[in-house]
Specification:
The structure is a homodimer of 207-residue chains. The first copy, chain A, is an alpha/beta fold and 207 residues long. Helices cover 45% and strands 21% of the residues of chain A. Chain A is built from eight helices and nine strands. A five-stranded parallel β-sheet of chain A has the order 2-7-1-8-9. Chain A has a four-stranded mixed β-sheet with strand order 4-3-6-5. In chain A, helix 1 packs across helix 7. The longest helix of chain A has 15 residues. Chain A is globular. Chains A and B meet through helix 5, helix 6, strand 9, helix 7 and helix 8 of A and helix 5, helix 6, strand 9, helix 7 and helix 8 of B.
């Protein structure tokens, strides 16, 4: 019986470890595709078009918006970021799970369009640990760190809009928990519409 | 950090194996309480008041409805069945999960009142297996079995209102899947309100 894939949206505070978590999940889960965002920002060193992002011009991005070819998009610090619709829908219909790592604004847009999307919010175990992680990266100024903490405060209001809150204390445990969540999503009725339809058809014969 | 318990509502076709599943889950999960329903039907042989049901009179049941002491109630074949509110709320606030096995009508009432309740629909892997299970019980007439199949057909319309569809092919696998689902429920934001509140408080200090 064909099962539809689950659309899994990951957001969380900067410093929560989302990127590492997503990388592990993509590597360790069969039948799961990573959605690649489209952006108008310039590639950083080492970034490859079609791997980290699809890098496009402002005109190309705005054409995609016009054609309704994005399931969500947002503007951060003067650059567009968005999720191409075609790839996500193709993968889901093939029964593959799709995972996306995006900001809260985009995640909530997706929930509106894909009611069955599963929103997971990743957080460190405490605010202090969040700050320590940002500090220990050693790449950001104290001003940037303070801004991230401020932003985390604003973002924490949206946690309740998410389906799951995943506390990233130990990465291995967090990966296992995330795999459990993915397993749970497969039991959503929306992933099993074909089963239910067939079951109902068969029940009809017995009526 | 105190975590609120999850309210888990199990429904499913007659013959799906809900009763056995619930018994296993109650025996094998720590920190989980079985909610006991109240009914006006007479106890069957071997049934104990306060174990299978709280057996009450029609007057007592109607007084409970009036006092808003039930989180759901319904009338089947001339008898009332309902879920006492006090016990459920006490257990959830103590951080215990509560599991209830009830009919669809009652399950949907609960979802309206407890938005965070998790509704699980249990089904055999096929309509044919459902019928075989009912037949192999050897306790029901063919007429009763046909009525159950007809009712299953009507009930199948409500599957999509549930949060999870659990296919009971092999009981051991089904029990494991259910345990995974319970683990997933613990990551719902509603179970972790205290964590989020504390986190936000702490973030405030860094703002």
């Amino acid at each position: 019986m064909k099962r539809k894939g689950a659309l899994i949206v990951i957001s969380g505070f900067s410093g929560a470890g989302k990127g590492t978590l997503v990388k592990r999940i993509v590597n360790e889960c069969d039948n799961l595709s990573l959605s690649i965002s489209m952006t108008t920002r310039s590639p950083r060193e080492g970034e490859v078009n079609g791997r980290e992002y699809f890098f496009v011009t402002k005109e190309e991005f705005e054409a995609a918006i016009k054609e309704d070819a994005l399931i969500e998009h947002a503007n951060y610090v003067g650059n567009y970021y968005g999720t191409p619709k075609k790839y996500v829908e193709e993968q889901l219909n093939e029964g593959k799970d799709v995972i996306l790592e995006i900001e809260i604004q985009g995640a909530l847009q997706i929930k509106e369009k894909f009611n069955d999307a599963v929103l997971v919010f990743v957080t460190p175990p405490s605010a202090e640990i969040l700050r320590n992680r940002l500090v220990s990266r050693g790449t950001e100024t104290i001003e940037v760190i303070n801004n991230r903490m401020k932003r985390a405060y604003e973002e924490s209001d949206f946690i309740e809009k998410y389906d799951y809150l995943l506390i990233n204390d130990d990465l291995d445990i967090c990966v296992d928990r995330m795999k459990n969540l993915i397993d749970a999503f497969h039991h959503a009725p929306s992933c099993n519409e074909e089963f239910t339809k067939q079951f109902k058809e068969d029940l009809k014969a017995f009526k």
